[in-house]
Amino acid sequence: MRRSANNPRFCPQWLQLRERADDAARAPELLRPLRDHLAAAPAPERFGGTDGLVIRDLGCGTAAMGRWLAVRLPGPQHWVLQDHDPVLLAHAALRMPSTAADGRPVTAVTAYGDIAGLTAATLADTSLVTASALLDLLTRDELEAVAAACTGAGCPALLVLSVNGRVELAPPDPLDAAVCAAFNAHQRRAAGGGRLLGPDAVAAAAEAFARRGARVITWPSPWRLGGPESALTERWLRGWVAAAREQRPELAAEADGYLRRRLESCAAGELAVAVHHTDLLALPMRLA
User: pTM of the prediction?
Assistant: First the structure.
């Protein structure tokens, strides 16, 4: 969300390419406790003074999270789609669904900005905070600020598709472990005055929310690549290996051959990949 080394820009084409895999990976198991929590909320907390749920989507991109979630929640909804990239916001504004799970209206506005100004006061009229593929791009201080804002406002948070450092490829290759370790180190790199959480983000988020009294539920949400997702698999492979090479330049010679082998296997329809993510739902204590 922030325009810095911590949060690089993502092109709409990449987000569109990954949307089907994202939708298949997100954990619907977290929706029942979320719906129960929202349904039990007193009217002022639940509706934020408006006729319906107010949902703020942090780092919304092209609003893929909104398209997935809005049609799975009942009741009128008003979405605030927040991102630091005006190009992505332009796409997001045009692609939200118009009706919720029960046919009631869904409206949306865009908000240009990052997480730096997120506080409990900002979320005073918010029923739910969402984010997709964001936690692993945050530093610990940024994550603590998000947890403090949500719990301070008594606002639940559904934070999904955070990488957890596990990647499985079949058939195996002798260089799999080295590339994965180098990529994970790249995800934890120093950037923007801090160190990114990368694969440690979900554990850090669970601890940060729980320390502030929230009930935390996590659920696996792996990407399953290969087969019909060959275009996404190829794009992911190239980015995965490039990040590993950037982190460990001494891998360059071996990485070239590794990438060639993996791309050939992908093109032949012989490669299966599981990129493991974790979804997190934090349900803060009710405000008095």
Answer: 0.93
- Residue 9 CB-density burial (10 A; 0-12 exposed, 13-18 middle, 19+ buried): exposed
Asked whether the beta carbons of 204 and 147 are under 8 A apart, the reply is no
Quick count: other Cβ atoms within 10 Å of Cβ 83? 27
Please list the alpha-helical segments (H only) found in 81-139.
Answer: 86-94
pLDDT digits (tens, 9 = 90+) for 85-138: 999 999 998 989 999 999 999 999 999 988 888 999 999 999 999 999 999 999
Cα-atom radius of gyration of the chain, to the nearest Å? Answer: 19
Amino acid at 216: V
Which residue, 45, 99, 92, 52, is CA-closest to 72? 99
Tens digits of residue pLDDT in 231-279: 999 999 999 999 999 999 999 999 999 999 999 999 999 999 999 999 9
